[in-house]
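Hi P.,

Sorry for the delay on this. The queue was packed all week, but I finally got your sequence through. Input first:
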Amino acid sequence: MSASVAGMVLQAEADSGFIARLLENANVPYADTMGAAITFVLVAVGVYVLGRATIVPLVNRLMKARNLDTHARKPLRKLTGAVLGFVSIAVAFAFAGFGSILTALATIGAAATLAIGFAMQDVISNFVAGVFIFTDRPFRIGDWIEWGDHSGIVEDISLRVTRVRTFDNELLTVPNSDLTTGVIKNPVAKDQLRMKFTFGIGYDDDIDKATEIILAEAEAHDDILDDPGPSVRLVELGDSSVGLQSRIWIANPSRSDFVKTRGEYVKAVKERFDEADINIPYPNRTIGGELAVEGGALAESVED
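Then the structure:
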C-alpha cells in the first residue's frame, strides 16, 4: 500500500514538473510555481466534475432505493457536495506536489477539529442524529409522534432540529438527539391502528348484554374495521365497577381520526347503556365519624 501511495506521489510530481518544464521552455517566469498552480486547478476541477458525474447520481439512486422523502434528499445532496469538494482539493494538493502544505493543513485541521469538537458537541450530536433520522425514518413530515411528555405533528425535519406542532397549536423545536436517544411512539407508522377503551359497568349489570352492545356499536361505526374485528375482554374487577375493555381498529390513522372515532364510539355505547339501564358507576366514598368530649378535651375519630 505504501509503495502504491509513493508511486502516485512521484507520478503527481512528474506531471507537475512536466507542466513546469513547458512553461520554463516558454520563458514564463516562476515556472515551477505556475506549473504547480495549474496542475492544482486542473486536477481539482477534473476530480470534482468526475465526482459530480458519477458519485452524485449514485447517491441519488441510493436515496431513491431507500425511499427517502424529498425533504430528506436536499441536505444529503449538500453534504455529498461538500465531501466531494474536500476530496477534490485534497487530491489536487497531492498531484500539485504540495505534500508539505497538505500535511501542515491536515495538522492544523486536526487541531481545529478537536477544539471545535469540544465546543460544539451538542451541535455535532444533533447533526449525526439528524442523519440517522433521515436514513432510519422513524417518522416523516405529517406524522403524529409522541415522546416523553410531548406529542404533536411533525412539520419539518432538518439535520439539526425537528419542528413539531402540538395539538394546542404550539411549535416545539426539538434537538434531533432528543428524538434518537429515547423512545419515540409513532401511532401512524402503519396502515392500521388499534384503540382500546375500558367501559365500567355495575356489579349488578348483565356482562353479556353490555358486551353485546359494545360490539354492536363498533360494528355499526363506518370508520371501525371489520377485519381485524372488534373484541371485548373483562379486564378489571374494581372497587365499584366491572371493567370491559373494547379493542377496535381503524385504517389510515391520524390524530384527528383517532379522537373523532373514539369520541363517537364511546358516546354511542353510553347512549345504548342508558337505554338498556346498564349503569356506569363512579367511585363513591362514605365518611362517618363521631365527636366525644372527655375530661374537657375534644376527641375526634373518623372512619372511612
